[in-house]
Amino acid sequence: MLEKYNFSEIEAKWQKHWEETKAFKVVEDPDKEKYYVLEMFPYPSGKLHMGHVRNYSIGDVIARFKKMKGYNVLHPMGYDAFGLPAENAAIKNNVEPAEWTWSNIEEMNRQLREMGLSYDWDREVATAHPSYYKWMQWIFIQFFKKGLAYKKENPVNWCPSCQTVLANEQVVDGCCERCGTLVGKKNLSQWYFKITDYAERLLDNLDTLDGWPNKVKIMQRNWIGKSHGAEVEFKIKDRDETLTVFTTRVDTIFGTTFMVLAPEYPTVLDMVEGTEYEAPVKEYIDRCAHMNEIERTSTTNEKTGVFIGQYAVNPFTGKSMPIYISDYVLMGYGTGAVMGVPAHDQRDFEFAKKFDLEIIPVIEPEDPEIDLNDLKEAFAAEGKVINSGEFNGLDNVDAIQKVAEAAEERGIGKKTINYRLRDWLISRQRYWGTPIPMIHCDACGWVPEKEENLPVMLPTDVEFTGKGESPLATSKTFIDTVCPVCGKPAKRELDTMDTFLDSSWYFLRYCDARNDEAVFDKDKVDYWMNVDQYIGGVEHAIMHLMYARFFQMALYDLGLVKDEEPFKNLLTQGMVIKDGAKMSKSLGNVVSPAEIIEKYGADTARLFILFAAPPERELDWSDKGVEGSYRFINRVYRAVYEYKEKFAEGAADFYEIKTEADKSMAYWMNYAIKKVTDDVGERFNFNTAISTIMEMVNEMYRYKEGDVNEALYGAAIKNLIIMLAPFVPHVTEEMWDHLGYEGSVHEQSWPSYDESALVKDTVEIVVQINGKIKEKINIPGDLSREEMEKIAMEDEKVKGLTEGKNVVKVIAVPNKLLNIVVK
RNA sequence: GCGGCUAUGGCGGAAUUGGCAGACGCGCUAGAUUUAGGUUCUAGUGUCAACCGACGUGGGGGUUCAAGUCCCUCUAGCCGCACCA
What we know:
Layout: H1 7-21, E1 34-39, H2 50-68, E2 72-74, E3 78-79, H3 84-93, H4 97-114, E4 125-126, H5 130-145, E5 149-159, E6 164-166, E7 171-172, E8 175-176, E9 184-193, H6 199-204, H7 214-224, E10 227-236, E11 242-247, E12 258-261, H8 268-272, H9 278-289, H10 293-298, E13 306-313, E14 320-325, E15 337-340, H11 346-355, E16 363-364, E17 384-385, H12 396-409, E18 413-418, E19 424-425, E20 427-428, E21 438-441, E22 445-448, E23 480-482, E24 489-492, E25 496-497, H13 499-502, H14 506-509, H15 522-528, E26 533-537, H16 543-557, E27 570-573, E28 576-578, E29 581-582, H17 593-600, H18 602-611, E30 619-620, H19 623-646, H20 660-683, H21 686-703, H22 710-724, H23 729-738, E31 762-769, E32 772-780, H24 785-794, H25 796-802, E33 807-813, E34 817-822
Parallel strand pairs: 1-2, 1-26, 3-4, 12-14, 26-27, 28-30, 31-34
Antiparallel strand pairs: 5-6, 5-9, 7-8, 9-19, 10-11, 10-13, 10-18, 12-15, 13-14, 16-17, 20-25, 21-22, 21-24, 23-24, 28-29, 31-32, 33-34
Helix pairs in contact: 1-23, 2-18, 3-4, 17-18, 18-19, 20-21, 20-22, 21-22, 22-23
This protein binds one RNA strand of 85 nucleotides through helix 7, strand 11, strand 15, helix 11 and strand 30.
C-alpha cells in the first residue's frame, strides 16, 4: 500500500485478481440460503452511461452486502443484444449487425469490469447469440402449441419514400426519422401473443407483489384497464342485423339519441352498399385509414364523422336513432360500437353539438346551478334517474345494476368486463432479431419448425437496403424450406421477434446459462428463482415488467417454473440529471462514466452516486460532490495507512473500555454497524449509510488525537473497512490486504454490534414548556417517566418558568423529551 | 381531462413510529500547517435580533401537550396514460 491513494493502480490490480480467481462465481448450494439480485441488462450501445453506473452500483452493493451476510448470492449480467440500432448501423455504415453488436459487447464488458462489479461472468448471456435465441424459439413454439400465438392482419407504419416498415420509435412527429416523409399505414399479417388471456391474473397478482413500488403497480393496473359494464344489443331498423355496444353507463340508456361505430367496424360497408351514403362513408374510412399521428392528435377536440343512412332502435324506448361512423370510437376496445348519450358523456356531447343531434338528460344533478335543458357540457356525475320509465327515481349507481338485469331478462344484454390491454404484437419486419421459427405450408398452414432443427439461424446473406417489408426476404437461402409435417416445399416466416420477448425470460436463463440440452434445468431454476431484488429504471414499469410477468405465468402454466411471479422485490431507480435536466447530447450536459473513472476511479464514482441521493429519487450530478467523495476515500485511506505505520497491529477483536473517549469511540463504532446494517439491508438507503460511516470516521479522527486504545481503534479500522467494502470494493480490498488480514475483505462476515456499547450512561433530554423547547438537561439513561419529571422539575430554569403557574399536564417520552403544560 | 409523485438552508439531501428541523456532504467564512497555490487539519455556517429571545419545512386552515410528518384546501413543478364508451 502506497502512502498516497493511487486508485488506478489499486483498481486494476484487484479487478485482475477477482477475474483470475473467479471470485464471484456461484453454484447452487442447498445448505445455504440463496439471494438473487438482478439489474436490468443493458442494450449494448457500446457506451456505458451514468444511468447504468447507478443501476449497477446499487445492485452491486446489495449483492456484496448479502454475500457478507452469508447468502449464496446470484448476481449475473448479460446483454439485450438484438435491436434496431445495430441494423441502422448496418444500413448507414455498411457494418454487419452481428459484428457491430459483438464489438460493442466487448467494449461494454471492458467498461463494466472497470467498475469492479461482483458478477458471475460465467453466466453472461447475449440474446443475439444462437445459444440464447435457440431457446427463445423453443419457448415461442411451446407458446404456439398452447394456443398463445396467432396471426392476424394489422397495419404497420409505412414510409412511402423509403419503401419500408418503420418501428414506432422511428416515426418522429408523424414523419419518417430518416427522410422526413409523412408516414402512412400498410396492412400486414403479423404474429400476436394472447396476453389478454392473462389480463385478470396479471391484475390480481399485483396485490401479492408487496415488494413493488405502488407507482408501478398503479401504472400496470391502468394499463390493463379493467372496467365493469354491460353489453346491450340494438336492432338495426329494416335490417336483419343487430349492433352490440359496450357501456359502463347502462343507466343512461334512455338518453341514447344516436349510435356511433368505429370506421373499421366490419359491417359498415355492407350497410351502405348501393346507397347514396356509400361514397362519403368510403371516403371517410379511407381518410381514417391513412391518417397519421399528426392528424390524429390534432383532431382531439373537433369531432368528425359521417351518417351511414341506417337507424338503430333503442330497446328500452323504441326510438329510432341515426347511426354514424366516427374515429373517436376505437375498434380495439369494447365492441367497436357505442351508444351516444350526449347528456352524460362529454365525447358524445361534442359529437351531438357538431351534428345537431338531440340531447335527452336522464340523470338529474343535485347542483341546482346546472340547467339540464341548456347543458354547456355533459353531466357525468351521479344523480337521480329521470325520463327513464320504470327506473325513474333510482340513484343512477343502483340503476346501473337494475338496467343491466332488465336487459339480461329480456335477452338483449349482459354484464361484462372489458380490458384496455390488447394482445401483444410481436412480429417485427426487421433483420436483427430472433427469427420466428414458423413455416407456412400450403397444405398444413402455419406449423412450427421441428425442435431438433433449432435454432433457425439468422441468415448472413442479407442485404441491408432499408427497403421492403422484411429484410430476411432478401436472403436467398432462408425462405425456402420443407414442411416439418408433410415434407412438401414450404416457406419460412420472414418476420423476427420483438426484442421484448428476449428480455422476458433472461432472468431464468441466468440460472442455467450454459445449458445446451434444455432451456434451463428445472432444479436450478427452482433453487435460484424468484429474483429477490430486481433493479432498473422506471421507464420499464409497464412494458418490460408486464411482458416478463406474462412469460413467467405462461411458463408456469407449462410446468416449467414453480411460481407465477418472477420478481419478488422491485426497486425503480431515479434518473441521473445535471443542471435540472436529463443528461443528453443536445443539452451538452452529459458526464461520461469513463471520464469520471479516469479522473477519480471507480470507487469514487460508485460512492458519489450512492451518496448523492436515495436510489429511487432523481440524482443531481455534481462535479464538486464527486470531489467530496474522493476526499472521503482519501481520508479513510490516510487513517488506515497511518494506523499501520504508527500503531501496534493485531489484537483488534478484544478491547477494554477505559476512558470516556473510548466509550464514545465504541459507541460510534457500534452505532454505525447497527445503522449501516439497517440502511443497507432493510431500507436501501445507501446515502444515509454512507453518511453514518462518514460520521464514524470523523469520530475516529477526533479519537486518534487523544490517548488511543489501540485494540479498540484497530477494531474501528477493521469494521470501517468491512462496512465500506460493498460500496468501494477496490480500495477496501487494498487496505485489508495492507493490514495483513487473511483472504479477501469481500469474503468476510458482516460485523455485528454490541448492544451494551449503545447504552449511554447519561442522555440529554429536551424539556419543553407548552411545546416550546426551554432547556436541555442530562439525566441518567432509562429513567421512568416519574423520575424524569422529578429531575426536570428541580432544574433551576424550569423552576423559574413554572413558578406560580398551574401545571396542567406533563408528557414524558423516556430518554427523549418532557413537555410540561402550564396555564 | 384522468391517475400518480414531489415541494425542507446558497446547493444535494437527513429527520425510519407524531417527540431537539437542517445529520452527512458540497459551497462559503476564519484560523493552523505548508507557504506559490492547492492539499491537509480545526472551528463556524437556517433567518432576524445580536442580551433575553423570536421566527422557520411551497401558501392558507385544522387535529394534538407536541406536526416537515396526520386531516382539509390552494399553488407550483415533474412523471405516466390519454377520444377506453
